[in-house]
Design goal:
By secondary structure, the chain is an alpha+beta fold. It has two domains: about 80 residues; about 45 residues, no CATH class. The protein is about 55% helix and about 15% strand. It is built from three helices and two strands; from the N terminus they run ααββα. Strands 1-2 form a two-stranded antiparallel sheet. It starts with a helix and ends with a helix. About 5% of the residues have low confidence.
Length: about 130
């Protein structure tokens, strides 16, 4: 009788373990399937991004062609830089010595053109910045 109850316990344990293994396999199968679907979506996103990047590179290559830029510069009345437009470094105030102007200030450039400045030099520091005392 004792041997029979031991066999029954082993049989019940084997059936329970078999059912647990079947349940785990079932859930693992669908978890893997969900991950494969997610992977397919990610691959599609990567492919779309790769194509968009390739298109952007082609656009940039087209827009930066020298012959196209020469034509566009002529249409905008742009001229090549000349030596007369160069400024002495001592005339430039360092950025740390500038503050935001309350209102835009008109300025005359060395080339004779006029512009509007949004920054102005800090008055107390200008003489020392330019080497004057």
């Amino acid at each position: 009788m004792a041997a029979r109850s031991v066999r029954l316990r082993y049989t019940i344990a084997a059936v329970v373990l078999t059912l647990l293994a079947a349940w785990a396999t079932y859930h693992l199968k669908y978890a893997v399937r969900d991950r494969e679907i997610e992977l397919d979506h990610l691959r599609a996103q990567v492919d779309t991004s790769r194509k968009a990047m390739q298109l952007q590179r082609a656009d940039l290559a087209y827009l930066t062609r020298p012959e196209r830029l020469v034509v566009q510069a002529g249409q905008l009345n742009m001229t090549p830089g000349r030596g007369a437009r160069l400024v002495d470094v001592t005339q430039i105030v360092p950025a740390a010595q500038l503050q935001l102007a309350l209102s835009p200030m008109p300025a005359l450039l060395p080339s004779g053109a006029a512009t509007v400045l949004q920054l102005r030099p800090i008055q107390a520091i200008i003489p020392t910045a330019l080497g004057r005392r």
